[in-house]
Amino acid sequence: MREIPVESITEAVSEMCIKVCHELSDDMRTCLFDAYEKETSDIGKKILGQLKDNLAIAKEEMIPICQDTGMAVIFMKVGQDVHLTGGDITDAVNEGVRRGYREGFLRKSVVADPIERVNTKDNTPAVIHYEIVPGDKVGITLAPKGFGSENMSRVFMLKPADGIEGVKASILEAVRDAGPNACPPMVVGVGIGGTFEKCALLAKEALTRPAGEHSPIGYVKDLEEEMLDAINELDIGPAGLGGKCTAFAVNINTYPTHIAGLPVAVNICCHVNRHISVEI
Amino acid sequence: MEKHVTVPFDKSVSESLKAGDYVFLDGTVYVARDAAHKRMTQSLAAGNELPFDIKDQTIYYMGPSPARDGKVIGSAGPTTASRMDKYAPQLLDLGQTGMIGKGRRSQAVKDAMIRNKATYFAAVGGAGALLSKCITSSEVVAYDDLGAEAVRKLTIKDFPVIVVMDCHGGCLY
Questions:
Q1: Nearest residue on chain A to B150, alpha-carbon basis
Q2: Beta bridge pairs of residue B171
Q3: How many domains does chain B have?
Q4: What ipTM describes this predicted complex?
C-alpha cells in the first residue's frame, strides 16, 4: 500500500488552479488559432483576434484569461492501493482551491447557500467527484467552470423511441438557445445514457477530454463530427455575432442506461475551456 | 463602422448609434452585476437614493478578478446581461443611457431602451485580460461587502465594444 500525504494533493491543486486560469491547454489554443485562420466573417475574425491577444496578455502578465475563474470542479481518481495520510482528503482538496485562488489573485465566485447567497470569499467548496480505480496513483483533473456557459446547459430525459435523431435535436436546441450568452466559440460536452445525474456527469467529464480527440466508439465519433459541422452551420459565430466558428469541439461520452430511458445532458463551455490533469 | 464615444453620454448620442457599430469608449462607467442590482432596486423600493446619480450613465455588467500589486484591476470582461433584465428597465427609466455586457436581452429591456433612448453594447466575453488593459482607474464606490460584486467606478480608454442593440429597435443577435 502506497502512502500519499494529503498535503501533496493540496499543493498540486493550488498550483493547478493558478496555471489553468492563466494559460489554456494546447488543444484549446490550437482550436482558437485554427479558427482565426479559417473564419470568413469580418467581425468574427476581429473577435477571434482579440481572443488570441487576450491569451498572450494573460500568460505574460499573469492576468486571468477570463474574470470568471469559475467554481472549481475536480475529478479525483484514487487508486485502491493508495493510503492517504495526514488529514481529510476533501479538506485537503478545498485547501488547495483556497490557496490557489488567494495566491493566484483569482475571483472568489462561490456563495455558501444558493438562496441566502453570502460569498464564502475563498472560492470553496469545490465540486469534487471521487472515483476509486485500480492502482497506486491519485489522478487529479481540475476544470474551473464559468457560469455564463454553465447556465446555458441542459438535461433532456428523452424516450428510447426518440433515438439518435432525438439526441441530435437536443444538442442543437441547447446550442441554439445558448447562442451569444455562452461566449462562443464553445466546447460542447454531451452525456448520453446512465441516469438523470450520471448523464450530467458524463457531459461534464467530456469537457475535460482534449478538443480534437474523439470517442473510441465508432458511431459516437461520427456523431461528434456530424454535430460539430451542424453547430458550425448555425451562424452563431464568435461572440454570437455571426460566422463559421460556433464550436471548437463536440465531445460525447456514453454509458449503459435503463430499458425505459434515454437521458441526454448538454454541458456547454465557453472558449475558455480550462482543464488540467496531474498524476501523483 | 468604427466610432469613438465619450461616456457618460446623453440620449442624442444613443440616437446616433446603430447596431453593428464598432465603438471605442472613453471616460467613466459604473460597474454592477447581480447582487448590486438587487440591492439598488431594493434601495429604490425603500425610498432611498441610488449610490450614484444614474442619469446618462453607462453600467458595465462585470465582476473583476482581484488586482495584483501595481495593477489597476484584474481580469475584467463582461458577464451575461440577461441576468440583469429584471432590474434594467427601472434603471433605464431613471435615465441610464448605456449598458455593457454580453448576450441576449428580454423584450422588456428592448422596450425600455426604445422608450428611453438607451444603447446596449457587447464587449467580447472571455477577453478579460485584454479588456483590463483599457481600464486606467478603478474605485469601489458602494457595497464594498459584496467583494467582486461591489459597485465600482472605472475610467476607461479605447475600450472596444460593439453596439448589439440600439435605441431604434436594431439588434445584431
A1: A119
A2: B165
A3: 1
A4: 0.93
Band of pLDDT at residue B1, cut at 50, 70 and 90: confident
Q: Is the Cβ of B119 closer than 8 Å to some Cβ of chain A?
A: no
Domain that holds residue B157: 2-165
Q: Establish if A53 touches chain B: CB-CB under 8 angstroms.
A: yes
Residue type, A247: A
The answer to whether position B170 is within a domain reads no
In a domain, B138, yes or no: yes
Q: What are phi and psi of B29, to 5 degrees?
A: -135, 160
Pairing assessment for the beta strands A154-158 and A247-257 based on DSSP bridges? unpaired
Q: Based on the residue annotation, tell me whether B37 is a catalytic residue of this protein.
A: yes
Nearest residue, CB atoms, A63 vs list B132, B148, B173: B132
Residue B35's identity, in one-letter code, is A
For residue A98, give the nearest of A124, A78, A70 by alpha carbon: A124
Task: Pick the closest to residue A229 from A211, A249, A210 (CA basis).
Answer: A249
A-chain residue closest to B101, CA distance: A181
Query: CA B77 → CA A62, A200, B134, distances in Å?
Result: 15, 28, 11
| CATH code for the domain of B17 | 3.20.130.10
pLDDT tens per residue across span A43-93: 999 999 999 999 999 999 999 999 999 999 999 999 999 999 999 999 999
Does a structural domain hold residue B66?
A: yes
Going along chain A from its start, the domains and CATH numbers come out as 2-20+65-145 (3.30.360), 148-272 (no CATH)
Does A148 touch chain B if contact means CB atoms closer than 8 Å?
yes
User: Any bridge partners for residue A143, and if so which?
Assistant: A73
In this structure, the number of other CB atoms found within 10 A of the CB of residue B137 comes to: 13
In a domain, B114, yes or no: yes
